[in-house]
């Protein structure tokens, strides 16, 4: 199967999710900066969610740059990942309407991130198995690639702490996503090396 359709579908879904989120933002009731400041919580949640989705999209792009073959199981795992990401407009709006510091909305937000991270880790392992240990993804994200598992642990910790301090979900998960701002260097080096070696010699 070609990977182009799965990449195009993912790009479209994430673009739609971001569009829905920004449409959920309510403009200030008054034409003043004080009224704008009063909406700082909802704006902050939107910025955080936009950042999270951007991290997922960026790393998804780098991940599939290493892939040459996909299967039905990969398509379904990617669909599950898109399902969890599609919940961001819902969870973001609930956090905003729950006055930012409530347990249920924040825990739900954190659980969505946790489940998305679990799906991501399974997707990576499945892609390695489908493409083989000697493939680009196998060589760059092989058995010593533990960042997805670390992220699952941090996201689970955020949910546990969030039971007692709801805003900690954003603080802890925010620090976790900082690990993913710069995509895996090994993946980039593998792609660059492969592109260089595949160019015809003059």
UniProtKB/TrEMBL annotation:
<dbReference type="GO" id="GO:0005267">
    <property type="term" value="F:potassium channel activity"/>
</dbReference>
<dbReference type="GO" id="GO:0016020">
    <property type="term" value="C:membrane"/>
</dbReference>
<comment type="similarity">
    <text>Belongs to the TMEM175 family.</text>
</comment>
<keyword id="KW-0813">Transport</keyword>
<keyword id="KW-1133">Transmembrane helix</keyword>
<dbReference type="InterPro" id="IPR010617">
    <property type="entry name" value="TMEM175-like"/>
</dbReference>
<keyword id="KW-0633">Potassium transport</keyword>
<feature type="transmembrane region" description="Helical">
    <location>
        <begin position="37"/>
        <end position="56"/>
    </location>
</feature>
<dbReference type="GO" id="GO:0015252">
    <property type="term" value="F:proton channel activity"/>
</dbReference>
<keyword id="KW-0631">Potassium channel</keyword>
<keyword id="KW-0472">Membrane</keyword>
<keyword id="KW-0630">Potassium</keyword>
<keyword id="KW-0406">Ion transport</keyword>
<feature type="transmembrane region" description="Helical">
    <location>
        <begin position="6"/>
        <end position="25"/>
    </location>
</feature>
<dbReference type="Pfam" id="PF06736">
    <property type="entry name" value="TMEM175"/>
</dbReference>
<feature type="transmembrane region" description="Helical">
    <location>
        <begin position="76"/>
        <end position="95"/>
    </location>
</feature>
<keyword id="KW-0407">Ion channel</keyword>
<feature type="transmembrane region" description="Helical">
    <location>
        <begin position="148"/>
        <end position="181"/>
    </location>
</feature>
<feature type="transmembrane region" description="Helical">
    <location>
        <begin position="107"/>
        <end position="128"/>
    </location>
</feature>
<keyword id="KW-0812">Transmembrane</keyword>
<protein>
    <submittedName>
        <fullName>Integral membrane protein</fullName>
    </submittedName>
</protein>
């Amino acid at each position: 199967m070609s990977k182009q359709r799965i990449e195009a579908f993912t790009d479209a879904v994430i673009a739609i999710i971001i569009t829905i989120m920004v449409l959920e933002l309510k403009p200030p009731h008054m034409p003043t900066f004080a009224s704008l400041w009063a909406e700082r919580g909802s704006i902050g949640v939107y910025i955080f969610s936009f950042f999270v989705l951007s991290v997922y999209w960026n790393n998804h792009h780098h991940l599939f740059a290493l892939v040459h073959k996909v299967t039905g199981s990969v398509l379904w795992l990617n669909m599950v990942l898109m399902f969890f990401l599609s919940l961001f407009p819902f969870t973001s709006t609930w956090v905003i309407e729950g006055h930012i510091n409530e347990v249920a909305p924040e825990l739900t937000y954190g659980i969505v991130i946790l489940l998305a991270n679990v799906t991501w880790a399974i997707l990576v392992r499945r892609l390695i198995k489908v493409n083989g240990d000697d493939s680009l993804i196998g060589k760059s994200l092989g058995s010593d690639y533990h960042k997805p598992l670390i992220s699952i642990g941090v996201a689970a910790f955020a949910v546990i702490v969030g039971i007692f301090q709801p805003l900690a979900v954003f603080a802890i998960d925010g620090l976790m996503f900082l690990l993913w701002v710069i995509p895996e260097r090994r993946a980039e080096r593998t792609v660059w090396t492969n592109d260089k070696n595949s160019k015809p010699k003059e």
